[in-house]
Amino acid sequence: MVKMNSEQISDGKADKHEGWRETVKTVVYAVLIALVIRTVAYEPFNIPSGSMLPTLLIGDYVFVSKFPYGYSRHSMPLSPPLFSGRINSAPVARGDIAVFKLPTDNSTDYIKRIIGLPGDHIQVREGVLIINGKVVKRERVDDFVQKHSGARYGQVRQYRETLPNGRSYLTLDLQPRGMADNTNVYVVPADHYFAMGDNRDDSTDSRFLEHVGFVPAENLVGRADMIFFSVDGSARIWEIWKWPSAIRFSRFFDGFG
Fold first, then answer.
1. pTM score, two decimals?
2. CATH code: domain of residue 108
3. pLDDT tens digits, residue range 191-224?
4. Domain range spanning residue 235?
5. Which ranges of 132-174 does DSSP label H, i.e. alpha helix?
6. Which of 66, 112, 206, 230 is an active site residue?
7. Does 26 map to a domain?
8. CB 226 within 8 Å of CB 62
């Protein structure tokens, strides 16, 4: 019979305790590293609605970079009120797709395209965007067609819009006389931005002052840079055999220029 003395038993307990400590330390370090990356570098977001069609589809997952605009409290998880304004602030480019905290509650994440910069005069007339009194170029292109089953939009009129700085992208026109196709002139205040969805007739954005309105610079979370994953919603999580057909591989690593 092998006898174990008290010193051997003590060493075994110590090793086990040390193993738990190392595991906990590893988990804590991993969480801290993830938080740092999400705060200063990139954060993933998924697209739950069609307001940015055709650029972003429902089921797209995008990487949002935090550093292009500098940092505010909204760059951090839960938006802790540690400071006001932005640190290392940098200008926003017209045409950027940005994630921001909804100004009316400072907590809900919205993703839209930045159309108006501080001091701009923005208006929409008969569905045509006007910036500082000049009509933005808008060309009719082939219709947008949503192909998978259960598509909400089917076939829709599609236009290519080109901003004064040359940024070009596609927009949708669901109906010729949408409720926000004719607006007053919006004057963008200092340190604010005017954001619109590419799906112009199905986007609650800065045109609706009581719901969104002008976006304070402090509310910017970051710039959407790339789609890293996309799924069309036709397969449930447990329907593994359907995953290959549900995943939109062609959208992986698409950027927005």
1. 0.85
2. 2.10.109.10
3. 999 999 999 999 999 999 999 999 999 999 999 9
4. 41-255
5. none
6. 112
7. no
8. yes
